[in-house]
Amino acid sequence: MSNTEQSPEGQSTAGDTSPTSLEERYSVVVGRFVQGVELVAATVFAALFAIGVGDLMLQILEAVQSGEITDPLVVIGFIDTGLLLLIIVEVYQTVLAYVEEDETRRIVRLVIYTGVIAMVRKAIIFRTGEYASTTDALFAAGSYAIIIFALVSLLFAEQNVGGNAGLLSEE
């Protein structure tokens, strides 16, 4: 027996929170499906992070044993991998924020953090020798600088905008 009561006109009373129309029921089912897929995605990112941490530890151990740990390019490779793992963590946290239906501000902040980490990673592993010409390398470096400046500006703006300003807050 349901805890909802019908009014004399046939409408449900205020205690009824279940969807009544086909569209509402469909929307609830699809919403639960999407939330389930988001949880699967979060699980995949958590597993990738765990695998990545294990792999990084093995790489460091092998580098120590072989003596390659003193090679700056090997160390930069470890930093690159570590930053990639941080990107995975940020994406995981972003997916969880969607699942938990966090406020838009938190989600935007997580996306900005992910972008900053990704661009710092690109700057750290940047090598001019990987480009066909020095002009190409200069354009790439300039592009990275512009993107990093834009992301840091966004982060600064997000942190300094009051919750009531409405720029990045929930409506």
Automatic annotation (TrEMBL):
<keyword id="KW-1133">Transmembrane helix</keyword>
<dbReference type="InterPro" id="IPR020948">
    <property type="entry name" value="P_starv_induced_PsiE-like"/>
</dbReference>
<keyword id="KW-1003">Cell membrane</keyword>
<dbReference type="GO" id="GO:0005886">
    <property type="term" value="C:plasma membrane"/>
</dbReference>
<feature type="region of interest" description="Disordered">
    <location>
        <begin position="1"/>
        <end position="20"/>
    </location>
</feature>
<feature type="transmembrane region" description="Helical">
    <location>
        <begin position="73"/>
        <end position="95"/>
    </location>
</feature>
<protein>
    <submittedName>
        <fullName>Phosphate-starvation-inducible PsiE family protein</fullName>
    </submittedName>
</protein>
<feature type="transmembrane region" description="Helical">
    <location>
        <begin position="107"/>
        <end position="125"/>
    </location>
</feature>
<keyword id="KW-0812">Transmembrane</keyword>
<feature type="transmembrane region" description="Helical">
    <location>
        <begin position="137"/>
        <end position="157"/>
    </location>
</feature>
<dbReference type="Pfam" id="PF06146">
    <property type="entry name" value="PsiE"/>
</dbReference>
<keyword id="KW-0472">Membrane</keyword>
<feature type="transmembrane region" description="Helical">
    <location>
        <begin position="39"/>
        <end position="61"/>
    </location>
</feature>
